[in-house]
Amino acid sequence: MRTKRCTALGLVLLLALAACQGTGRTARRNTDAAWHTPTEVQSMQLADAFARAEALTRRYGARNVLLVFDLDNTLLAMSTDVGSDQWFDWQRDLPKDDERRVAEDFPGLLRAQGVLFRLGTMRLTEPETAGRLRALQQRGCRTMVLTARGPETWPSTRRELDRHGLRFRDFAPGPAGGWTESYQPWDGARDVLYRDGVMLVAGQDKGRALKTLLTRVGARPLAVVFADDKQKNVDQFADDFTGRAPETWMYRYGGEDAAVKRFHANPAPAAEQWKLLEPCVKQLQAVFGETYSVSK
Ligand SMILES: [Mg+2]
């Protein structure tokens, strides 16, 4: 009897152990199959990132996939040379004594670009973007914008996204609409804003900023797709997201590369455009004050 009881008990223990091991194997198998280092792709069309996100929705479920777009020279680009992303980089790197500089220092350049964002308009880098975005959002995929712009550019940023039918508010991670106030994402960081599915990180590490946001809202996507025209951002994103989500795909988008190259080959038209604008900006500043202030 005692032997039978022991045998029966042993059998139960064995079955329990087998069940535990089974669970362990399953967990390990899922982990092994899905977790891998971030994958980088050089891409000339946003369709590649959209297609990747769509494929991942079939694998992980739409709500577990997060598609993240940069804004400038990825979703949208300035309609004019002056105020464009390439104009900003060119201005930033000009020598201090170069007469083509529009501002005396970096904060002044940021203010100048803010004024140009307010006055200028943007174009879609690809006409199909709004349709592709809506189709993916309707499937339930999470989508958002992650831009290096500062929180102060929010009104003009939102206006141009709206004008082109690019809406993220109801499809982004976290509370609907995000937060109306900017906040400090980590000690020593500049304030960022997360509003209507658009995160403005004020020139800081995008991957780090997104990680803090996902932690803050308790979101744990199983797959993240990130598209950005700047290699530096893609590299940072790879560092930040290694081990953060089972699958991370980064698309270095080159659709505007030719326009950027053209600009740098001849920045004279942009310098001329600023010369024409400068008196108008000064008049706007005289009437509206700080909103249109540029330091030079
Ligand atoms: Mg960009």
Features:
7-stranded mixed sheet, 49% helix, 296 residues, alpha/beta, Rossmann fold, two-stranded antiparallel ribbon
Structural notes for this entry:
This protein is an alpha/beta fold. It has a domain at 36-79 and 121-265: HAD superfamily/HAD-like (Rossmann fold, 3-Layer(aba) Sandwich), CATH 3.40.50. The chain has 10 helices and 9 strands. The protein has helices at 2-34, 46-60, 85-93, 106-119, 129-139, 154-163, 206-217, 231-241, 257-265, 268-288, and strands at 39-43, 65-69, 76-78, 122-124, 142-147, 193-195, 198-200, 223-228, 247-253. The strands form 2 sheets. It has a 7-stranded mixed β-sheet, sandwiched between helices. It has a two-stranded antiparallel sheet with strand order 3-4. Strand 6 (193-195) and strand 7 (198-200) form a beta hairpin. The longest helix has 33 residues, at 2-34. The chain is globular, with a radius of gyration of 24 Å. It starts with a helix and ends in an 8-residue tail after the last helix. Residues 9-33 have low confidence and may be disordered. The chain binds magnesium ion. Magnesium ion (MG) binds next to loops.
